[in-house]
């Protein structure tokens, strides 16, 4: 599989997780952790309502699962694909987990913490700064979120 195809299919898997989260009544956000050799280690969607847990964002759930599987509190060399710009809490967890690269879809002007708000990775207290690539699969990610919030009203 070419680099480009891998890249697309991994964000597609994160979008699948977002769609599954939406079916559970969650905000449609999905995340996938990928190992240095390109294998999906974990994939998750939001579980905030189901678990009554404000920290159960897709990124946190996927990182926890990957750490459990690997038996390590760090995911050095791993990549994270997430359909929405991580919030400050998730950005901080990504940094703590030493994730190498973050690929995200839609920007989140309301709650994002990477390109706006506290800009966690640009902060001097961020001890580990991943490479960040935005706008990957953003159109589909935004469509899911807009449809979800339109139904909420
Ligand atoms: Zn978050």
Automatic annotation (TrEMBL):
<keyword id="KW-0378">Hydrolase</keyword>
<dbReference type="Pfam" id="PF00383">
    <property type="entry name" value="dCMP_cyt_deam_1"/>
</dbReference>
<feature type="binding site">
    <location>
        <position position="87"/>
    </location>
    <ligand>
        <name>Zn(2+)</name>
    </ligand>
</feature>
<keyword id="KW-0819">tRNA processing</keyword>
<dbReference type="InterPro" id="IPR002125">
    <property type="entry name" value="CMP_dCMP_dom"/>
</dbReference>
<feature type="active site" description="Proton donor">
    <location>
        <position position="59"/>
    </location>
</feature>
<dbReference type="InterPro" id="IPR016193">
    <property type="entry name" value="Cytidine_deaminase-like"/>
</dbReference>
<feature type="domain" description="CMP/dCMP-type deaminase">
    <location>
        <begin position="5"/>
        <end position="115"/>
    </location>
</feature>
<dbReference type="InterPro" id="IPR016192">
    <property type="entry name" value="APOBEC/CMP_deaminase_Zn-bd"/>
</dbReference>
<feature type="binding site">
    <location>
        <position position="90"/>
    </location>
    <ligand>
        <name>Zn(2+)</name>
    </ligand>
</feature>
<feature type="binding site">
    <location>
        <position position="57"/>
    </location>
    <ligand>
        <name>Zn(2+)</name>
    </ligand>
</feature>
<dbReference type="GO" id="GO:0008270">
    <property type="term" value="F:zinc ion binding"/>
</dbReference>
<dbReference type="GO" id="GO:0002100">
    <property type="term" value="P:tRNA wobble adenosine to inosine editing"/>
</dbReference>
<dbReference type="GO" id="GO:0052717">
    <property type="term" value="F:tRNA-specific adenosine-34 deaminase activity"/>
</dbReference>
<comment type="subunit">
    <text>Homodimer.</text>
</comment>
<comment type="function">
    <text>Catalyzes the deamination of adenosine to inosine at the wobble position 34 of tRNA(Arg2).</text>
</comment>
<keyword id="KW-0862">Zinc</keyword>
<keyword id="KW-0479">Metal-binding</keyword>
<dbReference type="InterPro" id="IPR028883">
    <property type="entry name" value="tRNA_aden_deaminase"/>
</dbReference>
<comment type="similarity">
    <text>Belongs to the cytidine and deoxycytidylate deaminase family. ADAT2 subfamily.</text>
</comment>
<protein>
    <recommendedName>
        <fullName>tRNA-specific adenosine deaminase</fullName>
        <ecNumber>3.5.4.33</ecNumber>
    </recommendedName>
</protein>
């Amino acid at each position: 599989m070419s680099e480009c195809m891998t890249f697309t299919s991994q964000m597609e898997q994160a979008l699948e997780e977002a769609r599954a989260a939406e079916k559970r009544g969650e905000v449609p956000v999905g995340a996938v952790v990928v190992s240095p050799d390109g294998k999906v280690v974990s994939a998750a969607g939001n579980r905030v309502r189901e678990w009554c847990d404000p920290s159960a964002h897709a990124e946190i759930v996927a990182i926890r699962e990957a750490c459990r599987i690997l038996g390590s509190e760090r995911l050095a060399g791993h990549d994270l694909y997430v359909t929405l710009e991580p919030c400050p809490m998730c950005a901080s967890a990504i940094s703590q987990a030493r994730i190498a690269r973050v690929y995200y879809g839609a920007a989140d002007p309301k709650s994002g913490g990477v390109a706006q708000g506290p800009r966690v990775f640009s902060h001097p207290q961020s001890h580990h700064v991943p490479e960040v690539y935005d706008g990957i699969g953003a159109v589909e990610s935004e469509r899911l979120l807009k449809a979800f919030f339109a139904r909420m009203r």
